[in-house]
From TrEMBL, chains A, B:
<keyword id="KW-0503">Monooxygenase</keyword>
<dbReference type="InterPro" id="IPR036661">
    <property type="entry name" value="Luciferase-like_sf"/>
</dbReference>
<dbReference type="GO" id="GO:0004497">
    <property type="term" value="F:monooxygenase activity"/>
</dbReference>
<feature type="binding site">
    <location>
        <position position="211"/>
    </location>
    <ligand>
        <name>FMN</name>
    </ligand>
</feature>
<dbReference type="InterPro" id="IPR016215">
    <property type="entry name" value="NTA_MOA"/>
</dbReference>
<feature type="binding site">
    <location>
        <position position="86"/>
    </location>
    <ligand>
        <name>FMN</name>
    </ligand>
</feature>
<comment type="similarity">
    <text>Belongs to the NtaA/SnaA/DszA monooxygenase family.</text>
</comment>
<feature type="binding site">
    <location>
        <position position="136"/>
    </location>
    <ligand>
        <name>FMN</name>
    </ligand>
</feature>
<dbReference type="InterPro" id="IPR011251">
    <property type="entry name" value="Luciferase-like_dom"/>
</dbReference>
<keyword id="KW-0285">Flavoprotein</keyword>
<feature type="domain" description="Luciferase-like">
    <location>
        <begin position="10"/>
        <end position="369"/>
    </location>
</feature>
<dbReference type="Pfam" id="PF00296">
    <property type="entry name" value="Bac_luciferase"/>
</dbReference>
<dbReference type="GO" id="GO:0016705">
    <property type="term" value="F:oxidoreductase activity, acting on paired donors, with incorporation or reduction of molecular oxygen"/>
</dbReference>
<protein>
    <submittedName>
        <fullName>LLM class flavin-dependent oxidoreductase</fullName>
    </submittedName>
</protein>
<feature type="binding site">
    <location>
        <position position="140"/>
    </location>
    <ligand>
        <name>FMN</name>
    </ligand>
</feature>
<keyword id="KW-0288">FMN</keyword>
<keyword id="KW-0560">Oxidoreductase</keyword>
Length: 434, 434
């Protein structure tokens, strides 16, 4: 998140060292997001930083908040906005993950969401006593069972299980609290959870995998999907594909919302926006650019000429992490005939997401087209830098979308589930007993 | 924590269903603790609730916050008070635990602490794919290495590692960020952590084990120890014993603070205090009392006559959980010739901790004696019920301690380490490179 999505955002005017881990500053950003009537604040996560001896380490602000301590804090300073954290299904236990989100859901009165990731990075596995990451397929098998266990745990308390009858001394209706007795390939978990159901019944499940197994997992379990489509054709194809997979899991089209990522730089004129982008690019240290590109490709580019082409990369099946990201980057380089420098500049901000640089009207035109033609149900907005880049989005882009009737002027509900217009999935245990 | 430490606190006047998971209410309690100039707020934790079909399940408010979401929220609404959470060294990975506390430490500007527990309950292990808890000895071996890994990760960022030189483009001084390359019996962890060092350098480490392995672990690693001594003689013996063990780990007497637990009920007169206690006892449903006692003894007492003696219990080596607690309870029952009912009433509030029921002066006399005669460096205060029981402590007991010059009137420092008067332990990596 901070100081921004652009790799050189920390050098940009207005960003400050004092903002790092500063709760007052973070609270102000969260309140700004709420003023903008966003559905949710989303914290990405990764369970490692780069090797301190690697290229670009010194030029990159390579730190990462732990999502839950921050989301808990933001719950205390906001009223309506959803609070979404990332948690790995590979380097965690489902009981711990279920509890964290359920507890955040209680404290925020129904505003939490879980972005499920499978953590394929080598340096992540090395922080968890594994010499190698699990293979892609195993990660997804584990993730599927992990999500199943977590949702069962969330369902282990029916909504009216707490009786709290002070005079009779009955605190809980035990018929509405369920041991889950899960026994599977990866986990055996007895339950119940230690935390009762919240106002939105259960946290929202979010995913971003675009590989074949990622899409199947999403179709089966996700309520929101983040994706990184570059063109409207690709986005529509992904939309059609993923929505089409829902029916075989007994789900309806509206049970899953698709939100492509957009990295945004706004100017009051097109020139101003382009100038900001150029300023940010000019601030990218070569080492930092090369480091980020190497990380995204999972291939160390150190020593290759910056103004030459990409070298031949290992075949895609060898990629342990985000296969779809690597594939997309190779395609972009090929189609545009990019040098290494051009390619790292291309992802310096957007990290492989689509980039929109322009006036509020231009950006709104683009988002409107995607939204109206089944390329997107909404967007995962990535501000280039905080606070100013985000302030521009709230002050300039959101009002333009509101004027067009494309975006809410006020929150209509209280929970994240209501903001997203999602139904509560049926409870595992109520279904069983019917 | 809520609605109080007494098993029937939820039925007591002034406690309310609406307080559960209510962030405004919780924030008010935290602010009250800060008004009382407490060192820290401590959240206990356990990774299970009882079986919904077990005795007393319906009569016990058997729920548990996840500590980090709540501590994050409390960081946002307090300024000075320490924020201490419990995390298990058995059902977690050290990288995740190190990160959570480091992140809370950043967001709270140096106010976090970790209460290390080893989770010996059978129902806990069943939530984590284990049929049986690890044996006592293995839990402590794992805990020792776990703490070592966590502290190395906390040390992986030296304090001035973030340079943030916007003009030169140097964000980080890589010579001050260390991969830890830990390889041990239980864990292999590469590091560095994703979160830099905070204002107090590293979170405070707290423990409560009173078994032989517990005391050794504490002497080696803990900065605060919670204990459950019933008599001043036992407390002094524990104090002498534990402080005496420090030297072999190269530590000094003041590097570890000993804080016995005290469960407190205050009245403006002694009669009022006793009356409150009796009211609370009268509200204990038999099933709930029996359930808590069974849980503490790790032995199901269902079916035994409430007004008869304790049956013969399995020998202490068979206890997988908190051996010292079981031992203490058996001793109390024996010495007082308690029936099952008397024993569950005895622990209904104090949970095996010492109980103080009286006027502020009486309670202050007792605490003063312990504090002045090497039985305690401080106390872990357990209020019987929230909000009123805690309000009494802040409004009546704290001022009495302040009048006697035994307790601060204002915070003198900003960090938990400063409140406790603890030095920063030497950094693993700076030592290595000297």
């Amino acid at each position: 998140m901070l100081p921004g999505h652009h790799v050189s955002s920390w050098r940009y005017q207005g960003t400050k060292k004092e903002h790092l881990f500063n709760l007052k500053f973070l609270a102000a950003q969260a309140k700004l997001a709420e003023k903008g009537k966003f559905d949710m604040i989303f914290l990405a996560d990764q369970l490692n930083i780069n090797d301190p001896t690697s290229t670009g380490f010194e030029q990159t602000l390579n730190i990462m908040y732990e999502p839950f301590t921050l989301l808990g804090a933001l719950a205390a300073v906001t009223e309506k906005i959803g609070l979404v954290g990332t948690a790995s299904s590979t380097h965690n236990e489902p009981y711990n993950v279920a509890r964290k989100f359920a507890s955040l859901d209680q404290l925020s009165e129904g505003r939490s969401g879980w972005n499920v990731v499978t953590s394929g990075q080598l340096l992540e596995s090395k922080n968890f006593s594994d010499e190698q990451p699990l293979a892609h397929r195993e990660r997804y098998e584990r993730a599927e069972e992990f999500v199943e266990v977590v949702t069962k745990l969330w369902d282990s308390w029916e909504e009216d299980a707490i009786v709290y009858d002070q005079s009779s001394g009955k605190a809980i209706d035990s018929s509405k609290v369920h041991s889950i007795h899960h026994k599977g390939e990866w986990f055996s978990v007895r339950g119940p959870l230690t935390v009762p159901a919240s106002k939105q019944h259960r946290p929202i499940i979010i995913q971003a995998g675009s590989s074949e197994s990622g899409k199947e997992l999403a179709a089966k379990t996700a309520e929101v999907v983040f994706t990184a489509a570059q063109t409207i054709e690709n986005a529509r194809e992904f939309y059609r594909d993923l929505k089409g997979r829902l029916v075989k899991y007994g789900r309806q089209r509206d049970d899953l919302k698709i939100m492509p990522g957009v990295f945004i730089i706004i100017g009051r004129t097109e020139e101003e926006a382009k100038h900001k982008k150029q300023q940010l690019l000019d601030l990218v240290p070569e080492e930092a650019g090369l480091a980020r590109l190497s990380e995204h490709l999972e291939f160390d580019l150190k020593g290759y000429p910056l103004d030459g082409p990409l070298p031949k990369l290992p075949s895609i099946e060898k990629v342990s992490g985000t296969q779809s990201r690597v594939e997309l980057l190779k395609k972009v380089a090929e189609e545009n005939n990019f040098t290494i420098r051009q390619l790292y500049q291309h992802i310096a901000g957007a990290r492989g997401q689509r980039e929109l640089v322009g006036t509020p009207e231009q950006i709104a035109d683009d988002l409107q087209l995607w939204f109206k033609t089944e390329a997107a149900d909404g967007f995962n907005i990535l501000p280039s830098h905080f606070p100013d880049g985000f302030q521009d989005i709230v002050d300039l882009l959101i009002p333009e979308l509101q004027r067009r009737g494309l975006f809410r002027r006020e929150y209509e509900g209280d929970t994240l589930r209501e903001h997203l217009g999602l139904k509560t999935p049926p409870n595992h245990f109520i279904r069983l007993s019917e």
